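Dig into what follows:
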Amino acid sequence: MKFAHFADCHLGSWRENKLQELSLNTFRKAIDYCLKEYVGFVLISGDLFDTALPSIELIKEVAHELNRFKEQDIPVYIIAGSHDFSTSGKTMLDVLEKAGLVDNVVKLKDNKLEFTEDRTGTLITGLYGKRGSLEIEDYKTLNIKDLEEKAKNENNFKIFMFHTALTEFKGEEFERIESASYAVLPKYFNYYAGGHVHYIYEADKSSEGYGKIVFPGPLFPNNFAELEKLKYGGFYIVEVKDKNISMNHIPLELVKLESYNINVENKTPDEVTKELFKIKNTKDKLILIRIEGSLKSGKPSDIKFNDIFAKFEEPFFVLKNTNKLTAKEFEEIEVKQGTVEEIESHIIENSDKHELFNKEFISKIMDVLNLEKNEDEKIPDFESRLLKDVKRMIGV
C-alpha cells in the first residue's frame, strides 16, 4: 500500500500573483508525482486553502486539479485546518466533498469519531484544526476511550489525521504557538498524519502505544520567513508493507531561490542602492531581499526599489522585506504608560520632532478622530462626516 501525505497547502495565501501561481503550480506538481507513483490515496491534513471562503477562480482551479485524482479513482481524505475551518461549520471543503472530490474524515457524533474505510482496508479518522488552536478543547471533550477501543480491536492499518502543534516536537522557534501534548491523541493508530506547524518532522512512539507521528511541512512556504528558511515545500510518500512504514519526503522545487540580507546601518540611500546593484545572476530565480537597519540620512522611500529591481536580469520574481528598515530622522517617539489623555499629550509634546507634523496639527487631528456617532446617525453617515473633517484638516 502506498499513500501521499500533504498538509498546509494554503492555496490563495500569497497576494503577489506570481507567487500565488507558483503555489498553485506546486500543488499541480505534487499531484503529477502522486499519479506517477500510483498512490492508493491522498491525505490532506488541513489548510488546503488559506481561508474558509477562497475566491471562485481559485476554487475552480483546485477543483480541476483534484478531479485528476477522481479520474484515476484515487480518493482524497481531508480535514479542515485552522485557516479553512469555519465557526459556522460551512467551508469550501463541503463543496468539494459534495462534488465527490474529497472525503472529510471528521465524522463526529455525540463526541465520538467514526472510521472511514478506504478500499485498501485502511481505517481513517481525525479531528479538524481551529483558529487559535481552539481544537485542543475539543480533544478534551472527545470520547477518546471509545475511539481507542475501536482502534485496538481492529487489525487493519489505521490513520489518525490532525491539525495541531504538539508540544514535545515543536521546537523553540514555535514557542509562541499554542500546542498540546501528543498524549491528547488517541492511541493504537499506526500513522498520525499531522499538519499546522510548518516543518518536516517524524517521531516513532510505538513503544508508548502510538505509531509514527508525522508533519510533512507546508506544500509551499506561506510567507517571506518560510521562503528564507525552507526555500520550497514538499510532502511525503508513505509505503506500508505488513504494517512496516517507509517514508520518502518529496521536495517540490519549481524555481531556484536565492536570499540576500542587506544591512543598511549608518548607510545612505545611495550606498544601499549601490549594494543592491551588486546582486547578479538573477535570471529565472526567485530573489528574496531582506533589508534591515537604520539609514544614516534620508528616508526609506529614497531607495527606489522598483527602479533597481527593473534592472535585474529577468528574475522570476523579486520579493523584499523592509519591516526593519528605519531612518534616524524618523525615530519613534518613546511613549510611557498612562491614561489615554496622558499618552495623547505626550505624543503632541513630541510631535515637533517630526518635520511633517506640528503640535497644532496633531492636536486638531486627534480632536477630529475623537468625534462620536450621534444617537440617530447611521454608520455610513457618521463615517462620511468623519472622512470629510479629516480631508478638510489635511487640505484634500
About this structure: The first strand starts at residue 2 and ends at 6. The chain has a mean pLDDT of 89. The CA atoms of residues 29 and 252 lie 7 Å apart.
